[in-house]
Structures are given as structure tokens and as C-alpha cells.
Specification:
The protein is α/β, with parallel strands linked by helices. 23% of the residues lie in helices and 22% in strands. The protein has an 8-stranded mixed sheet with strand order 1-2-3-4-5-6-7-8.
Length: 193
């Protein structure tokens, strides 16, 4: 769908320079999605892997973040191997509803209530990032913790349109449950892509 060089605005790698590769296609259907234009994979042109990697190489940062849509709708083996060969750290953000393909340095698992994750994601996730849209999302977030590896980092992130309401609840929750951290969409505060 698009690619761009910016800073990672969310989760464990917040503030790091990153080349984002946003793939078209998603069937999860989050009503609060901020990139609904990504849902129809056929609405976006296809690019050869070599062209995607060449675009990434135009910038000094060597962290590539594959996102979507839902990127695991696609077999990402070829793309991630090419990025790694070119010297990139490969990161993904996924809802985890499809089996993991590709070679990853970092997997951000961001489950959604609208579609169940594939069980293979639990042992591979480096980071759990749950969007908090309403109070019931705290229990939803906690439901994944026993399924994950002990090293998996845990993040709660307010849904952008409800930040004023949900952020104070998240702060209090993290104070009471310190295994969690707060993630904010810092790129929106900085007014960058």
C-alpha cells in the first residue's frame, strides 16, 4: 500500500528510525482502524521485492517494520529474507490471525476482539500490544499473558480517539499491574507519519 521512512511511534521500539512497509489486505475489521483504506488488497499496486528493498536502502536506518492491514495474509518469507540480506532488522506488527511466515527479529502481536489469533503466534511474540478502547479490553489483554513466553513485553495503548478517557485508566492499571507498560502513538503527538 505504501512505504515511508519515519520514527517508530509505538511499543518497544518507540523513537527509533524505521522504514515502514504497509501491505494491503485485512479481514479483521476493527471499526476504529485508522488505515481502513488498507483493507482491500486489490486496491493497491504490487511491487517487486527488489524494488521494496531498494526503497528501504535509500535511508540510513536499518529497521524495517512490516505492517498493514494484516501483513500475515501474505507469505513474507521472500521479503524478509531480502531485507535481512540487505542488513535490515525485520519487525512486524500483526493481529496474529494467520500463521507466521518470514524471518523476524521482532514480532509485535496486537490481537483484536474481532478475530481469534492463530495459536502459533503465542510462542513467537516478542511484544504484546493491546489497544484499549473500553474497560473490558483490560481483561482481554490479560487473557493472552498466560499463553506467551515469559520474555514477551506487555503494552497497553489507548485507542487514539478515546485517549482522553482511556489513558487515565491505563495509567492506574499499570500502576497496579507493573508487568505492563504504556504505549502511546507518539508519532501522532509529533505529527509525523
Amino acid at each position: 500500500m505504501e512505504s515511508f521512512y519515519t520514527l517508530q511511534g509505538e511499543g518497544a521500539h518507540t523513537g527509533r528510525a524505521a522504514y515502514f512497509i504497509r501491505l494491503g489486505g485485512c479481514d479483521v475489521g476493527c471499526h476504529w482502524c485508522d488505515v481502513k483504506e488498507s483493507w482491500d488488497a486489490d486496491a493497491h499496486p504490487k511491487y517487486p521485492i527488489v524494488e521494496i528493498v531498494e526503497g528501504a536502502l535509500q535511508h540510513p536506518g536499518r529497521m524495517a517494520v512490516i505492517t498493514g492491514g494484516e501483513p500475515l495474509m501474505h507469505d513474507l518469507t521472500g521479503l524478509t529474507l531480502a531485507l535481512k540480506k540487505a542488513g535490515f532488522q525485520t519487525n512486524i506488527e500483526t493481529s496474529g490471525v494467520y500463521p507466521v511466515s518470514g524471518v523476524w527479529d521482532w514480532i509485535c502481536f496486537s490481537p483484536k476482539k474481532f478475530k481469534q489469533p492463530h495459536p502459533g503466534i503465542f510462542e513467537q511474540a516478542n511484544e504484546l500490544k493491546v489497544i484499549i478502547y473500553n474497560k473490558s479490553d483490560f481483561a482481554f489483554a490479560e487473557s493472552f499473558v498466560p499463553l506467551l513466553q515469559p520474555h514477551c513485553k506487555l503494552f497497553l495503548q489507548p485507542e487514539w480517539s478515546r485517549s482522553n478517557e482511556m489513558l487515565p485508566l491505563i495509567v492506574e492499571y499499570v500502576k497496579q499491574h507493573p508487568q505492563w507498560q504504556v504505549s502511546l502513538q507518539t508519532h501522532k503527538y509529533m505529527d509525523i507519519p
